[in-house]
Model the fold of this input.
Amino acid sequence: MTNQASGSASRQSTAARAQLWPAADRNDVEAIVRIVNPSLLAELDARC
Done:
């Protein structure tokens, strides 16, 4: 993947989280993020 494609995918992921996380139950999102990518917990705290 090129740097440009990687940046685009990252922006798409961030945009998707901005839409999906507020629409879902916080506890459900946190449980999944803890397992899949714990580094996103800080972002979850900032958004929800």
In short: Residues 3-47 form one domain. The radius of gyration is 12 Å. The mean pLDDT is 88. Residues 3-23 form the longest helix (21 residues).
